[in-house]
Design goal:
- It is a single chain.
- The protein is α+β, with helices and mostly antiparallel strands.
- It folds into 2 domains: about 240 residues, FAD/NAD(P)-binding domain, CATH 3.50.50; about 170 residues, D-Amino Acid Oxidase, Chain A, domain 2, CATH 3.30.9.10.
- Helices cover about 40% and strands about 25% of the residues.
- It has 14 helices and 20 strands.
- The strands form 4 sheets. Strands 6-5-14-15-16-13-17-20 form an 8-stranded mixed beta sheet. The chain has a 6-stranded mixed beta sheet with strand order 8-2-1-12-19-18. The chain has a 3-stranded antiparallel beta sheet with strand order 3-7-4.
- A hairpin with a 2-residue loop joins strand 5 and strand 6.
- Helix 11 packs antiparallel against helix 12.
- The N and C termini lie far apart (about 80 Å).
- About 5% of the residues have low confidence.
- The protein binds arabino-flavin-adenine dinucleotide and P-hydroxybenzoic acid.
- The site of arabino-flavin-adenine dinucleotide has 32 residues, from helix 2, strand 2 and helix 11.
- Pfam families: FAD_binding_3.
Length: about 425
């Protein structure tokens, strides 16, 4: 008799535990704001693309949930882009993100190309009426997170095993694991903002997408140092030893890069070796002014040109690095992500607010039209300024002749300037 009572009690206890676990799961969803696990736009990826899309859509009254694999600290710890086109600045301002950008961003009226001791000023503002703004991607992302917090939008960090389901149907959904529990998020549309290594692009069957790629036989070794910038404007240097780049984040924080072989280990380079090699790639009068110091960040970025077409598959849309990668020589990566967001946000608001699907039907072609021109510019800047292993003396001369022509032709400099400041949206 007694054992039966104990058995009955243990069954009741097990049922109670299961019930509380279910409530806890629903509450955990509530805490993540999944609001009954349904939203209008599911955004995969909480980098610049995903956060800016969430910002603009929520401002228009469209509900989103951002699913991000990494922690916020990890996302904010990435040191990446530094140069914003005027279209990017305008889009960020329109999204309510202009305050700190306008206070702390540096407007640059030009940039420099150099070839040995030949210095070629590219007077962007004088040639096109517009310049660029130096403001690190880290700061853009920080501003986006703060703005998203203020709006109370839903960003779920630490998601794993994201799977996009029914993208070609009328009721797509996203499955993901959070703290060991499997979740489902129903939505009207999915935005793949999860970068080059994300799941979104790979959700599109291989026979439904066409990929275009050029992998460069070198990478960039980048150093961030608490030193005053050597040049008041970004400097791209061609030299017989390879490419070098001098940039900055502010008057006390500089960002430098040198071209290195593919697979270079950043830890194999001491700071002194880095400063020595950079100096050898700059004009002498610039190298003589270089203020060196300890690196606060040192990393190697591979260089590739990549586009995946189309950017749409049913109710799934690809945005930013999930769809394309440019070599950073043209400072286009982040800026292209922003123009993708500009186009897609406009299209989704139209579709969800007015039922007008013209924008989403035209998103892929419209974005690709701008993407390909930025792809060409980034490829041309990379080809012009980098030494290719095994290049013939003829090819090296072609690069130098291009730079020499730029130094003498305002027309050639205007063409470069028009692309560097960013082509119209
Ligand atoms: P991102 O890659 O920035 O963000 C994608 C987000 O999705 C990440 O936070 C990732 O954690 C998340 N994610 C990935 N898979 C996921 C999954 N399965 N589930 C959920 N979340 C997932 N551009 C320049 O203009 N100048 C530069 O100097 C420059 N340097 C760069 C250096 C490096 C090493 C890299 C990788 C890129 C660099 N770029 C540069 C380009 C860079 O700035 C990108 O263009 C920009 O980050 C694009 O932003 P997103 O499209 O948001 O992609
Ligand atoms: C940077 O400041 O990190 C930077 C600037 C210009 C580029 C690439 C990177 O083209």
């Amino acid at each position: 008799m007694r054992s039966t009572a104990i058995e009955w009690q243990s069954r009741r206890f097990a049922a109670w535990v299961a019930f509380t676990e279910r409530i806890a799961l629903l509450c955990s969803h509530k805490q993540t704001g999944d609001a009954g696990m349904r939203t209008q736009v599911a955004i995969i990826g909480g980098g610049p693309s995903g956060l800016l899309l969430s910002q603009i859509l929520n401002q228009a009254g469209v509900e989103t949930v951002v699913l991000e694999r990494a922690t916020r600290e990890h996302v904010l710890g990435r040191i990446r882009a530094g140069v914003l086109e005027s279209g990017t600045v305008a889009t960020l301002r329109a999204a309510g993100l202009g305050d700190r950008l306008d206070r702390e961003g540096f407007y640059h009226e030009g940039c420099f190309l150099t070839d040995g001791d030949l210095s070629i000023p590219i007077e962007l503002d004088k040639l096109t009426g517009r310049g660029v703004t130096v403001y690190g991607q880290t700061e853009v992302t920080r501003d986006l997170y703060e703005a998203q917090d203020a709006m109370g939008t839903t960003i779920v960090h630490g998601v794993e095993d994201v799977v996009i389901q029914e993208a070609t149907g009328t009721a797509p959904f996203v499955e993901y694991t959070l703290k060991g529990a499997r979740h489902r998020l129903d939505c009207d549309y999915v935005a793949g903002c999860d970068g080059f290594h994300g799941v979104s692009r790979k959700t599109i069957p291989e026979d439904k997408r066409q990929e275009f790629e050029r992998v460069y036989p070198f990478g960039w070794l980048g150093v961030l140092s608490k030193t005053p910038p050597v040049s008041h404007e970004v400097m791209y240097s061609n030299s017989p030893r390879g490419f070098g780049l001098c940039s900055m984040r502010n008057a006390e924080l500089s960002r430098y890069y040198i071209q290195v072989p593919v697979g270079t280990d950043p830890n194999a380079w001491s700071d002194d070796q880095f400063w020595e090699e950079l100096s050898l790639r700059l004009p002498k009068e610039t190298a003589d002014r270089l203020v060196t110091g300890p690196s606060v960040e040192k990393s190697v970025a591979p260089l590739r040109s990549f586009v995946s077409e189309p950017l749409r598959w049913g109710r799934l849309f690809l945005v930013g690095d999930a769809a394309h990668i440019v070599p950073p020589t043209g400072a286009k990566g982040l800026n292209l992500a922003v123009s993708d967001v500009y186009y897609l946000s406009e299209a989704l608001i139209d579709a969800l607010k007015s039922g007008n699907e013209t924008g989403i039907d035209g998103y892929s072609d419209r974005a690709l039209n701008r993407i390909w021109k930025a792809m060409r510019f980034s490829w041309s800047m990379t080809t012009m300024l980098h030494q290719f292993e095994g290049e013939s003396p003829f090819e090296a001369q072609m690069r130098r002749a291009t730079l020499n022509h730029l130094s003498r032709s305002e027309t050639a400099r205007k063409d470069l300037a028009e692309n560097y400041i960013g082509l119209p949206y």
